[in-house]
Structure formats: C-alpha cells, structure tokens
Specification:
The protein is built from four helices and five strands, in the order αβββαββαα. It is α+β, with helices and mostly antiparallel strands. The protein is globular. Bound molecules: zinc ion.
Length: about 160
Amino acid sequence: MSAGGACPFCAGAQTVYLESDRWLLLRHADPVPLAGWMMLASRAHRGGLDELAADEQGEVGKILSVIAGAVRAETGCERTYSISFNEAVRHLHLHMIPRHASDPSTTSWALADRYRATARKETPAADPAEAERAARAIAARALPDLAALGFAAPQS
Ligand SMILES: [Zn+2]
C-alpha cells in the first residue's frame, strides 16, 4: 500500500521503543497529557484496522493486551484505554492511555477535553522526562511477552 505523501509514521519521525517487521511501539509525542500514553502503529501504511493484512490481524490482539498490561503496571493506572481514530494521521495507530482512578480528568470522554486543553496549553502536559522514562519502562516490561512475535528494541 502506498505511503501517501507526508505521512509522519511512514517518514519515521517518531522515536521507536520496540519494533517488529509489522509493528512499531511509540509514545505520544509531546505535549502529552499523561506519562505512559503509548501508541501501537502498523509498520505498513494502513488506514485503519479494516485494512490490516491477515498476519497483522492475527497479532494485534495479543500485542494490545501485553501493552495494556505494561501501561497499567508501570503507571499504576486503574485501567488502560485503547482508542484508534487515525484522524490527524491516517496511518493505523492505537492509543494506549492510562486511566487513573484518582484523576477524573482521565475518565472516558473527559480525557478528550483534557487532551484538547493540553494541546491549547491550558492544562499542563506530562513532564517530558517522566513521559520518556515511562515509555522506556513500558517497552522493557512488554518486551519479554512480545519477543515471541518478533519484537525487539530498535538498533540505534
Ligand atoms: Zn503511513
């Protein structure tokens, strides 16, 4: 499938925390509302879940389950949301978002309000150093379970 012009994921603009032949584990770029906000992106340019190839379809559930567990373990959140819009960037990416029991602004659609407030700089973003630390810890925790699917830390 074509990369389609200026797709940032196809251009490799993001820091990759884990990768396989078919997937990239990323974190949300700064400003990110919450440390531990991760993203799983297809390596190939897919517009959404309905465009996945059979081998990608077969892996995505396990990968999301492992990442959700790692986000919860590393951030102490109560639950992990999984959302895929593919709106601003029309390349499949699933947001994995920590939902904290102690923070009502991370609950369901309130999270969208917080997201926009952070983008407008009305609500402080997560500390970039903490977001980076959390992303690396989540990747390290997820790697043993994802290695069987061919994931590894990127060679840099
Ligand atoms: Zn792309």
